Amino acid sequence: MPNNRSVYTSFSPADMQAFEPALKIGILGTVRDDGLPHLTLISTLGASSPTQVVWGQFTEGSCKHFVRQNPKTGFLIMTLDKQLWRGKADFTHTATAGPDYERYNQTPMFRYNAYFGVHTVYYMNLVEHYGRQPLPMNRVILAAVQTMLARALFGRRASRPALNHWTRQLMNQLSALKFLGYIGADGYPTIIPVIQAQAPDAEHVLFALSAFGDELRAIPAGAPAAVLGLALSMEDVLLRGVFLGCRRIAGVRCGVVSVDWVYNPMPPTPQQIYPAVALEPVTDF
Fold this sequence. Notes:
- The chain is built from seven helices and 15 strands.
- It is α+β, with helices and mostly antiparallel strands.
């Protein structure tokens, strides 16, 4: 949880109103069947009551399976005015009809879409959240500049080609949003903005600690970590690997993740892209 922040067990009316616009960032953290963290962009994430988190499914993806197997989730909501809410919730049930189903499908994004709409609504009981938190842009900008310096002088050689050219380009866009997730000691995913994160080579992601440093330093070295990168072009990529801890690079204190797995979350076919999945002939028609 963010340091020195209050803990709340319900959303205020102002919180719920802030979640209503369709144009916002919603990140859901789930736990894979193997216990590793998974992050997913869920633009419909919001609240249906002061104690209930809700989101609508309109595409397929791994998180829908994971949340049914392990109800512990973490969430992050960021509005267009750069206000953040983060917290934890327990998945309870789904619905394919009802007020929230109708509300989602009456929004312009789905009402006028000829190809898809929300077909399932997921409900989660709020465990806790930490209130409205403005994104510290001055610290983020400083951290991005420091990360650029550390990236240029990283000096470590990649041992695996996990990040292809496209993925490195996305991760190195200063305008792209990036978020790190790991599983806390209580079993819930924790999500931390790491907008300053960049990829110095085909294996590593690093980020200066000038923004959200206290939270990043609290991640145990060796912990599995996931990093979700989102570009303004509506492209995204999910990386996973091991958090190597914090170290000084070119005089800059940085956290480093060694990436060993890459996933394409984008439709029409979300799938693993590293390590490469072998193509198999179709035998059942």
